[in-house]
Each structure stands twice: as structure tokens, then as C-alpha cells.
Amino acid sequence: MRLLHEEVLRSCGHEPVVASDGAEAWAIFERETPPLVILDWQMPGLDGLEVCRRIRAHPEGDTTFVLVVTARDGAEDLTTVLDAGADDYLSKPVTPDNMQARLRIAERRIEVSRARKTAEEELRRARYLAGIGETTLTLQHEINNPLAALLTNVSLIRSGVLTEDEVAESMVVIEEQGRRVADVVKRLRQIERERSAMSVEYLGSQRMIDLRGDGTGPGK
After folding, report:
1. DSSP annotation string for 97-140
2. Angle 34-37-40 (CA atoms, 0-180°, nearest 5)?
3. Does pLDDT of 30 surpass 90?
4. Residue 144 and residue 136: Cα distance in Å, rounded?
5. Ramachandran region, residue 106 (left: φ > 0; alpha: ψ -120 to 50; beta: rest)
6. Closest CA to 86 of 44, 26, 18, 40
């Protein structure tokens, strides 16, 4: 049966990696995470359904197409196969024509899955870039305002027109505004991690980003 599967797979342009039992099949998947896995329900060690469950629990196993080959064809058996996470099943005895038909289904599903994953990556990237642009606009307000207040007070002190008490008040303002700028810069460090920036999501028409951290900033 394995030889038949191998020949049909090769005739369809695939390069099969063969496992002799369930444990070896699982080890191969962990090592290579192939896009297509064909499992016999009855395998030594780990049966096909257990391997299928492990594949679905794997971080990269959600897009793998799993085809289970089984001699069981009862309604309950087929439900059990699908409940284990299999995408399709093939009843024995297996013929080359039946196997090729199932492979065509698998190939189409794999292509759709890859296209969806590419689209999702592009969407996340677009949101990341949008978040960076929005952050830049927010910074113009969050940094320019305290910076202007800081520089104004510095100019007043240098001009010599302030009393001693007024100079002390200006120094307090300068310190406060400097801390505001430092706080914004500190919050920007999270954007250096692309994953953090790409996690920005929409909530209705609002962008969930707040550089000030107090829930009142214009960037929220």
C-alpha cells in the first residue's frame, strides 16, 4: 500500500517522505512540517488519528492538508476521522484513480491556504505601516507641544527678564515638559518590535494606539 501511494504521489509531481509507523510519521512532521500528510488509520505505535490530532495541535499544523486512508466506511467511523482534524479520507481498497482525485482536491486546498496566508501577511504588513504613519502624526503633537513650552521657558530665562521666583517656576516647567518628551520616547520603544506594532487593530473606527498611556491622547 505504501508503494502504491508513493508511485501515485510521484506521478502527480510530489516527492514523498515515507514513514513506517505513527511515531516516525510524527517525527518527520515535526522536522519538516510538510503541506500534505497521508495517514493510515491503523498504524503501529501511534495510529493515524492520534498523529492527525498532534498535527492540528502543532503551531504550524493548521494549514497542513491531512488525508486519512481507512478500511472503515461506517458513518460513525468517518465522523471520527473528521473530528480528529482530517481534511479528507480515502476508503480502502485504494486505486490510483481515487488517490489522484484526492490529491487534486488536496492540491487545490493547499493553494487556497497559501494564498490566504499570503493575503493575511500582506494585511498585517499594511496595518503595521499604517500604524507607523499614524504614530508619526501623533508624535508631532505629543512631542512638539511640550518641546515648545520647554524652549519658551529656556528663552525667558536666558533673556534675564524673569524674577528669581519666576526662574524657579520656569525650571519646574522645563523639568515637567522634558519628562513628557522622555515618556513618549520610552513608549516608542515598543514600536521597534514589529510584532508589537503589527498587533495594532481596529476597534470600530478607532485605532487602538495610545502614546500617552492615560487613555486621553489623540493617538487613541
Report:
1. HHHHHHHHHHHHHHHHHHHHHHHHHHHHHHHHHHHHHHHHHHHH
2. 155
3. yes
4. 12
5. alpha
6. 40
Helix residue spans in 58-95 (DSSP H): 75-83
* 8 A C-beta contact, residue 55 and residue 67: no
CA trace torsion 56, 60, 64, 67 (10° rounding): -30
The C-alpha atoms of residue 16 and residue 103 are separated, in whole angstroms, by 13
Whole-number Å distance between alpha carbons of 163 and 92: 97
d(CA 125, CA 129): 6
pLDDT tens per residue across span 73-94 = 777 888 899 899 999 988 888 8
E-state strands within the chain: 36-40, 65-70, 88-91, 202-203, 206-207
Three-state SS at 87: coil
Residue 68 to residue 87: CA distance in whole angstroms: 8
Residue linked to cell 498535527: 55
- 211, 139 in Cβ contact below 8 A? yes
User: C-alpha cell of 182?
Assistant: 522622555
pTM for the model? 0.56
For 107-160, the pLDDT digits (tens) are: 988 888 888 888 888 887 777 766 666 666 677 777 888 888 888 888 888 888
Cell 490530532 locates to 53
